Amino acid sequence: MACQQSRYHSFSSASRLQPRPSGVTIDESFLTEDKSTQNRKLLQKRRTLTGQFSMGGHLSPWPTYTSGQTILQNRKPCSDDYRKRVGSCQQHPFHTAKPRYLEELENYLRKELLLLDLGTDSTQELRLQPYREIFEFFIEDFKTYKPLLSSIKNAYEGMLAHQREKIRALEPLKAKLVTVNEDCNERILAMRAEEKYEISLLKKEKMNLLKLIDKKNEEKISLQSEVTKLRKNLAEEYLHYLSERDARKILIADLNELRYQREDMSLAQSPGIWGEDPVKLTLALTMTRQDLTRTQMELNTMKANFGDVVPRRDFEMQEKTNKHLQEQLDTLRASYEEVRKEHEILMQLHMSTLKERDQFFSELQEIQRTSTPRPDWTKCKDSSSLSPHADVVAGGPDRWQMLAEGKNSDQLVDVLLEEIGSGLLREKDFFPGLGYGEAIPAFLRFDGLVENKKPSKKDVVNLLKDAWKERLAEEQKETFPDFFFNFLEHRFGPSDAMAWAYTIFENIKIFHSNEVMSQFYAVLMGKRSENVYVTQKEIVAQLLKEMTNADSQNEGLLTMEQFNTVLKSTFPLKTEEQIQELMEAGGWHLSSSNADLLNYRSLFMEDEEGQSEPFVQKLWEQYMDEKDEYLRQLKQELGIELHEEVTLPKLRGGLMTIDPSLDKQTVNTYMSQAFQLPESEMPEEGDEKEEAVVEILQTALERLQVIDIRRVGPREPEPAS
After folding, report:
1. What pTM, to 2 d.p., does this model score?
2. Residues 6+ apart with CB under 8 A from 391
3. How confident is the model at residue 199 (pLDDT cuts 50, 70, 90)?
4. What is the DSSP string of 332-391?
5. Are residue 232 and residue 340 in the same domain, yes or no?
6. Under 8 Å CB-to-CB from 168, ≥6 apart: which residues?
7. Residue 35 and residue 103 in one domain
8. 130, 148, 382, 461: which has the highest count of C-beta atoms within 10 A?
9. Which residues pair with 606 in a beta bridge?
10. Is there a single domain that holds both residue 125 and residue 12?
11. What are the tens digits of pLDDT across the range 539-577?
């Protein structure tokens, strides 16, 4: 009974709940009405809550009035202890329940929070507004604590305002930080490009030095073997001469002994010798023998020392003859080397001429087989001869003469097709929608009629250039077709984006001769990777930078030697013929007024329709030819037909053979494109799963044709047979 009575007991009367004064602080940053409207709504809420929350004229002091009961402190409403105590209050009539005033306040707070959660523009700070209102009710109802509660509220409100001001002050710093981050990223990319170029040069120098070291080592080994052989020959000759000297001495002793014996025998047999004095004869014989021995020794010494010596006159004559013959031999050797080199050059020229002759003969046979009568292109500039189609080429003979200048028949057919297509586009007011099929590109999926905006060719080119600038300005994670449609929505709005998408698509599909339109169409339809366009722009920018660095006077002029040097240093893998083609495309000819200097900046300019100069066009043509030649060498190295399957390790081996300078990251990128596998799922080299990854060679080559694939270093020369 006591618990039930206390449930209806109240502490304050309804008359004590006064409306909140108009001076109460409310956060204006989260309300959309003016201050008077806010105060009026707050007073209305105050009156409504005053009528709802008043209970018998008193506010319940729950739970302080309950005698003999312990107040629960620091208890969470959802904890198990709280549930047990609530359950015990329901079981025992002596415990109390929440007063109605508190329950009404909680219900009001819960409804306000639910309303805020249903809104689409609710923020965390806006959710504090219902709590502010409840806190205002407490401030006004408890007069005794009003100053303390007001000071607490003002302190928190002041701190929140200070934090908001600090956040606003940090917003410019955040934008500046983003700008600085972008500048740093650009510098890092530039430094990486320079470092990559320097590394490639150092690698080439390292390879040349290694080759030179190998050559020197081979020469050293050859000289060492020759020295060893000469030492061995010298030792043999030395032993031979020692044996000859000893044999000669023995022979001389034997000869002397025989001579002495012969003289003794002759003296013994002479009849008149006995008439002389034996002592005198003996003495004379002894002296004669001594003289003979001395003379014989001198004779032997002279023969031994000068037996191989020739007269000086003969030596000088032989030396003069030898020198003359040596000069003749050197002259004949030089002549032979020149003749041999000329013969090799003539043989190479002969082989290339034979190949060209066979190629021209094949082309002649193909042309003779498929040739048709040559069209009379003068009809296009004669309006009377065009009769019903006289308006195909707008502008008359003068414009046709300008369009047809320097073009062959195939190019003239393209010009006529573009003119006919542009005329049909101008006549169309609407395009039929292509529907929502899977084969339709995402930016063309529409059902119904689409308006033809009919822009000029110049406007389309400028719009495509702006799209490229925005694509390259920051890293885009979305696909190129999705980016293109989002760009049109941002530029023209969602209502006209589809019309502009159809209009631009029809224009770039027709104008194949326009460089900007054809490249954008190829990237948009997935026939070429956008990295190809980015790489080509980087190459042109790097070449312009190198020419600017070579121009020390900053006059915009370069000599022929400087121009040639810059081209060779920037494109070290290009042949002499390709460098000569670039110089001719740059307009280097002696008939100009200033034949010694070239205005290199004019080579990189574009006209109003985005067409670049012949020099940049020649760079693009050489890039495409080099890519085709690279893939042709890869197919030739693999040695299989286009319809046959190729495995992942075999394709990797072919790439490393024709281009040994490829690094592992670049090879994995090529492999990922050829086999349509993410780089993270590519099997490691030597893994058993490599053999299981196969693809048709023609399909793999077509996929590689899409991306930026090119030679990194020179191919190692094949060993001479």
Report:
1. 0.47
2. 423
3. very high
4. HHHHHHHHHHHHHHHHHHHHHHHHHHHHHHHHHHHHHHH--PPP-GGGGT-HHHHGGGTT
5. no
6. none
7. yes
8. 461
9. 612
10. yes
11. 989 988 988 888 888 888 888 888 888 888 988 888 889
